[in-house]
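Weekly structure sync, notes
Attendees: PL (lead), two postdocs, one rotation student
Agenda item 3: pending single-chain targets
PL asked that the sequence for the first pending target be pasted directly into the notes so everyone works from the same version. It is reproduced below exactly as submitted, 599 residues in total.
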Amino acid sequence: VQRSREAVMRTKVQSTSLLLVAFCCYAAAASVSWASPPARDERSCSSVQDCLLSATRGLSNLRTLHSKLSQQTRELVSRSNGEAFVGAPSSSFLRTDTPSATSAQPKPALLGTKLGQNINLRGGRAASGAAGASMAHGFDYDYFVIGGGSGGVRSSRIAAGHGAKVGLAELATGGSSKDGGFGGLGGTCVNVGCVPKKLMVYGAHYSHDIHDMKGYGWNVKEAPELDWKGFMENKNKEIARLNGIYERMLGNAGVEVHNAKAKLVDAHTLDVGGKKVTADKILVAVGGWPSKPTFPGSDLAITSNEAFFLEKPPKTAIVVGGGYIAVEFANIFAGYGTKVTQLYRGDMWLRGFDMDVRTHLATEYKEQGIDVKFNSNIAKIEKAGEGLKATLEDGSTLEADVILYATGRKPRTEDIGLEEAGVKVNEKGAIVVDEGFKTSVDNIFAVGDVIDRIALTPVALAEGHCLADTLFGGKPRKTDYSDVPTAVFSNPPIGTVGLTEEAARKEYGDVHVYRTSFRAMKHTLSGRQEKTLMKLIVDPKTDKVLGVHMVGDGAGEIIQLAGVCLKAGATKEHFDSTIGVHPTSAEELVTMRTRVPDA
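Predicted structure, written out during the meeting:
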């Protein structure tokens, strides 16, 4: 009891010291900034900021420890008063060594004793010496993460911030080169997904801007020349820069990064690049991978992975699929001058989106010259000279330089030791987890695309953060999957949040629909016939807005704030009583008054 009380006092003293350190760091940072802003030494300022961050994190850890020590002291006092208290507290109390249960009255190392040694005033958590030396469970790590994608990086960084000793393994070396394994720190999103795709969408849209600017008096006497090689180099440099940022961010947080393949051996053991590593808790966050159907010549088709490293834009391309990736790459290719045919085996693409959104975009793509063919599928692919020939299931043929398959992604769960560790997967290969992301093995967890819930980067980030807070932060919480806003970077782009009209009618029965379609002000002079669509779905009983849908310029930016409105429970009256920003397309969201008549 006395030792426990002394530990409580030590945490108070250490907390006071860290407060002083934090104050000094703040003062130093402020003086650097105020003294001479133009000539500020960024390295010094960064060091001070890192120190401040570490001191703040250490203070948070000390507060948590102080609370635990105080509670355990009370328990020890209660036990000593209520029963014959002989010997040292059990291993569940305040221990950092791992003596056997039969050890005779050892002098336990209290959690607060060496905590100061684990605080790195240059940022992050300092190494704790021999692996597992300061951890009661005796494993090398408190937490080991397989996969350096969005969910894995976020979860590892937050866990380390809570004081856990964390390791992370990522084999791919980066999306700045086609030889980098189509991945790296940041996962699919940073390397061969959201980020490079958005850069390519930006680039593709300049062809529209060149056309549109003539109506505003800008005449280009010579046709612009595309430097595809230069663009690819710039794109790759940006991906390499982001990989470096992720690496430094993990290092500053105290996460030990292993550039190796990790595979589960059992519930607590991993093979990391041929070396055995143990961990108390393990997170599988290996993401997904593009999948192609198997048919004659399917190996001649590429996926989105390879599309990011084409040596030149194709003159003709066939894009197969009707989801986010297929729709976006059809836009990218067309913007860079490619003659595009898009095939989808169903009646209408973008399954799961509002039907008005789906049909509106189909009309816009056809207006732009993209040949969209529904109820069409490829039966075989053959080489034809320097290009490819696709034979469709109806017997017709198409020729193209490139055939891109974007028909889905699958969880990347093969050959990572799930079966050996006893982790269950479903028929799609996705890891089965409960609402707290726990797998069939109590100490193994999974987040992100590998669990096949909502395959979006921000969702994986939220899942990883929630898990780390729950396991190591003393803040148990669950991920809220309701009203997740999302965007498709088509041309024009799509933004959507909440229920579609079809889903709302199925759940609520009667709903009120408000819809408008118009030619945006910009295009009154550009000459482009592109139209914007906006739509609200409202519950007539509560007046609550159930869904917001948009196809038009800036849809992705607008829908983020619409998502906040839905999370806050906004009603149609709230929208109606909001004064619009004029002249903008967005003001239509607060000026729609006339309901669409019921069918």
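Discussion points:
- The two ends are 75 Å apart (CA to CA).
- Confidence is low (pLDDT under 50) at residues 30-46, 81-134.
Action: rotation student to compare against the earlier draft before next sync.
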